[in-house]
Amino acid sequence: VIMVPAFNGQKPCMPHTRETRDYLCEQLHDLGEYALKCGTTVILEPLNRGECFYLRLVADAAAICRDSKSDGVKCMGDFWHMMEEPSDYAAFMAAGTKYLQHVHIASRGRRIMPGEDGDKDNYVDGFRALQQLHYDKFITFECGTAGNREETVPAAVNLLREQWEQAAQCC
After folding, report:
1. What is the model's pTM?
2. Contact 41, 101 (CB under 8 A)
3. Are strands 139-141 and 73-78 parallel, antiparallel or unpaired?
4. With helix as H, strand as E and coil as C, how does the chain read?
5. Which residues contact 88 (CB under 8 A, 6 or more apart)?
6. Can you list the residues of the chain whose pLDDT is less than 50?
7. pLDDT tens track for 100-140
C-alpha cells in the first residue's frame, strides 16, 4: 500500500506538531505490523509542495520509517516529485536499503514519458545511488505520454537503459 499522509487541500485533524508526528509513527507502527502479517508493506511516498504540505523529502520519509519501529513501514522515491530534492543521489542514499522499497519514474517537467521533456530528463545521479545500494526492487512508470505510445515507450526504455549504463560508469 502506497500512502501520502497529507495532501494539500485537506483540513488537518490536528495541528502539525512533534506530537502529531509521534502519533503518525505510532499508527504506522501498528499498520506496518499488520502489513507484515499479511505479507506486504506500507510505503510512504513523499510528494512535492504543489501536492502536499507534509512529507516532501525522501529523507523525511525514511526518518518516519525508522521512528515507526516496524519493518512493515518503508518509503519510496518518485523522480518527478524529487525535483525538489537537492540531489537524487542523496535522497536515495538517505533511505538506504533498509527503507527504500519502490521507485516511480516520469519525465521531470510535465510528468509524461521519460525523454519527452528533453534535457530535464536526467536520472543518472539517482541511478548511481540505486546501483550503489544494490537496489533490486521495482522502478515503475507513473506517467502518461504526450506522443504516440508506440514510439514514446520504447524511446523511454532506451533512454533509461542508456542512463543506467552511464550511472554504472560513474561508480
Report:
1. 0.92
2. yes
3. unpaired
4. CEECCCECCCCCCCCCCHHHHHHHHHHHHHHHHHHHHCCCCEEECCCCCCCECCCCCHHHHHHHHHHHCCCCEEEEEECCHHHHCCCHHHHHHHHHHHHEEEEEECCCCCCCCCCCCHHHCCCHHHHHHHHHCCCCCCEEECCCCCCCHHHHHHHHHHHHHHHHHHHHHHC
5. 77, 79, 82, 123, 125, 126, 129
6. none
7. 999 999 999 999 999 999 999 999 999 999 999 999 999 99
Which residue intervals of 3-53 are DSSP H helices? 18-37
CB count in 10 Å sphere of residue 17: 9
Residue written as grid cell 502529531: 20
Residues 61/45, Cβ–Cβ less than 8 Å: yes
What DSSP line would sit under 86-104, residue for residue?
A: S-HHHHHHHHHHHHEEEEE
Q: Which residues contact 160 (CB under 8 A, 6 or more apart)?
A: 105, 114, 123
